Task: inverse folding
């Protein structure tokens, strides 16, 4: 609970919006002053300023106002300010706070917020903040942490929340706010509370997600594929982590690592040059994407966002960042009859959007370079393609699934054909490229 002076304090909880609200205290309304009914017309020191409404058999009568010493106006009603206390409570597994306002003292506001939170969460709630006549904001960080800040004005509270998040190496957005304005009441008049409760919208419990991929240090002979395993919308962090690791390891057959576990945020998956991947969380899609691109661009290479994932929505899938969930095609061509000096050349095109496009591009670049008629030697999609050469003088081109080591598989093919082979190059169908590969 904040201590006086008011609006001093920043509170944070490793958890996780709602809307705009205004809470005020109400008091008995003051009576109208200054004018009075004068059925006989204005007297000394008075003047007529209007008539009462007539109708339904009732005659209109004059309305007067005092205009001199003959009759003094009634004294103005004296009023006093009434404080407006507010409070917020949260739980380690809640994705927002329970906010109350309109109370006559701080303790009543704090107890009301805690009671609402405990009723919804089954106990275990704590006070996030409490104060008087000010603004409260609730902000969420990149992995779901919640922060509560009070200041005299909403704008100042938002600025302080963002500043405090930066001091914790976090980046926040405001997901909920309240401004509690003071009220007033006649001196000596009765006062009654007009309280409001603003609970989290929808399901108040956190929703967890996890991201996993292969542990590079334990690949063994397995090729690195760059695939990402995603589990989202789980009730606990442990369940999300355990499920994503189990899925990854079952499908790839080698140890995996959970690189990220968070709740109620977004994750951007970025890839660089078809050779590396990364995952960055954020409280909004835009922040997640910006953070991912900033990390990606810290090293040389061309970066792109492959996808964004909402961790609060139920999901479980394997994702290929380089293909971005699409099919990408490749084709390899050579000259017909292997005429010199082109007999030891292969033209390769990868990353095409269709089989026809890949074949057309490979034939075109082959013909342009060699000025010869060309033919397709191999085509595939979302695969790894090995170009290799055997001891009989033949060029071989084979494609393999991405989680199969092309060098090992090509060697096995050669052994079955009773020849010895040498790998010249391996290309990835998903990564856009056009090149001429010389067999030396």
Result:
């Amino acid at each position: 609970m904040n201590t006086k002076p008011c609006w001093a304090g920043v509170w944070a909880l490793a958890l996780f919006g709602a809307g705009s609200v205004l809470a005020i205290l109400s008091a008995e309304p003051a009576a109208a002053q200054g004018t009075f009914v004068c059925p006989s017309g204005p007297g000394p020191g008075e003047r007529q300023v209007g008539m009462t409404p007539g109708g339904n058999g009732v005659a209109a009568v004059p309305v007067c106002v005092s205009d001199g010493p003959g009759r003094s106006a009634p004294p103005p009603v004296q009023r006093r300010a009434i404080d407006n206390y507010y409070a917020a409570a949260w739980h380690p597994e809640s994705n927002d706070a329970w906010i109350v306002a309109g109370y006559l003292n701080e303790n009543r506001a704090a107890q009301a917020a805690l009671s609402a939170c405990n009723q919804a969460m089954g106990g275990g709630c704590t006070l996030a903040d409490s104060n008087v006549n000010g603004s409260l904001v609730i902000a969420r960080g990149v992995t779901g942490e919640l922060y509560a800040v009070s200041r005299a004005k909403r704008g100042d509270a938002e600025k302080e929340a963002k500043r405090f998040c930066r001091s914790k190496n976090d980046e926040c957005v405001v997901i909920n706010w309240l401004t509690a304005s003071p009220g007033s009441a006649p001196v000596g008049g009765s006062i009654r509370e007009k309280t409001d409760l603003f609970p989290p919208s929808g399901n108040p419990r956190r929703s967890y997600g996890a991201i996993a991929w292969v542990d590079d240090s334990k690949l063994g002979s397995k090729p690195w594929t760059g695939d990402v395993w995603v589990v989202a919308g789980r009730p606990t962090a442990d369940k999300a982590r355990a499920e994503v690791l189990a899925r990854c390891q079952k499908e790839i057959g080698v140890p995996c690592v959970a690189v990220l576990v968070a709740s109620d945020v977004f994750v951007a998956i970025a890839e660089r040059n078809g050779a590396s991947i990364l995952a960055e969380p954020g409280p909004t899609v835009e922040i997640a994407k910006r953070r991912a691109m900033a990390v990606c661009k810290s090293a040389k290479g061309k970066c792109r966002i492959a996808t964004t994932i909402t961790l609060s929505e139920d999901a479980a899938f394997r994702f290929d960042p380089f293909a971005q969930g699409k099919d990408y095609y490749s084709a390899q061509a050579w000259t017909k009859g292997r005429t010199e000096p082109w007999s030891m050349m292969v033209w390769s095109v990868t990353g095409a959007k269709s089989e026809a496009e890949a074949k057309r591009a490979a034939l075109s670049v082959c013909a342009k370079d060699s000025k010869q008629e060309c033919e397709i030697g191999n085509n595939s999609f979302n695969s790894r393609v090995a170009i290799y050469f055997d001891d009989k003088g033949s060029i071989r081109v084979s494609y393999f699934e991405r989680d199969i080591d092309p060098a090992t598989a090509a060697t096995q093919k050669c052994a079955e054909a009773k020849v010895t082979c040498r790998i010249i190059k391996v290309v990835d169908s998903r990564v856009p490229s056009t090149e001429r590969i010389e067999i030396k």
User: Anything to note?
Assistant: The CA atoms of residues 155 and 413 lie 69 Å apart. Residues 208-319 form one domain. The first strand starts at residue 10 and ends at 13. The first helix runs from residue 106 to 121.
